[in-house]
Specification:
alpha/beta; about 15% strand
């Protein structure tokens, strides 16, 4: 199944735009697990078990595994997701950005080793850094566009010749000539709802992966109003609103999984409510 179809089916099934980011930090694990990197897969699996019926995707961040020599645990975790939630897509957050044979190896890592359904990429080396991934038919690719960090404006908000901003150019390219297989989406931070709205206008059919809600301070209601386009009278395009720390670390106690579920229920309801309100 193509990533876009899988995502749409998961959103309908769960009635959710929420993506839970799996960013495991052993220093924040509960109780006796605190500081124990051998528990990474177990901790994340408990979060998956508690939330998989509430989300449209899971997004493991590869650095949180690699820093602890836990790539094998990432493989096991994605295998666990496949068993308990086979209809929920996995977006591997790796932000790769290289060309040629190196990009081909990164693609193999993501789609063969980890069996991810989608991958985040940096587009700043141009189309050469995107094309090798497009050969993986049906896989989703999310290009960094207007990111949630304050320093993103150092480059992304710089004007080009003619007045277009760099992030606007990325959105146009992703929605146009780069999107040869219909596989591309964009990463736009929830901390900048005006930019979310601008990217949506430039790329009305692309899915948007939106981090920054929760611990980073993004406004969920403003994010949905800026990025959501319903079925009636317009082009339907998904928004995937990511929350990591607010769900993962909702409790530091043994009830962490139950607390994560409660936080995910609250986040899903907030997002759905915002979608139903008039703009």
């Amino acid at each position: 199944m193509r990533f876009s179809d899988q995502l749409a089916a998961a959103e309908r099934r769960s009635q959710s735009m929420l993506c839970v980011g799996l960013d495991p930090d052993p220093a924040r694990f509960p109780g006796a697990w605190q500081g124990d990197a051998s528990r990474i897969a177990e901790f994340c699996a408990a979060i998956v078990d508690a939330t998989h019926d509430l989300v449209c995707a899971f997004k493991p961040q590869i650095a949180y595994f690699a820093a602890h020599r836990a790539e094998d645990q990432l493989e096991r975790l994605i295998g666990h997701i496949r068993r308990v939630a086979p209809a929920v897509p996995v977006i591997l957050d790796a932000k790769r950005g290289d060309i040629g044979a190196t990009a081909e190896q990164y693609a193999r890592e993501a789609f063969e080793r980890y069996r991810a359904d989608a991958l985040t990429l940096s587009p700043f080396m141009g189309f050469d850094s995107i094309e090798p991934y497009l050969r993986w038919e049906g896989k989703g690719l999310f290009l960094l566009c207007r990111t949630s960090n304050p320093g993103g404006a150092d480059l992304q908000a710089q004007p080009l010749q003619g007045g277009e901003l760099l992030y606007e150019r990325i959105a146009r390219l992703a929605a146009g000539p780069w999107n040869r297989g219909g596989q591309l989406g964009l990463v736009v931070g929830a901390t900048y709802p005006r930019e979310v709205e601008r990217v949506r206008a430039l790329a009305p059919t692309l899915p948007l992966l939106i981090p920054g809600v929760g611990a980073q301070g993004g406004d969920a209601v403003a994010t949905v109003r800026a990025g959501w386009r319903g079925d009636g009278g317009g082009t339907r395009a998904a928004i995937i609103v990511n929350s990591s720390r607010a769900v993962l670390y909702a409790s530091a106690g043994d009830d962490f999984a139950a607390a994560a579920r409660a936080a995910a229920i609250q986040a899903r309801a907030q997002l759905q409510s915002a979608r139903m309100r008039p703009g």
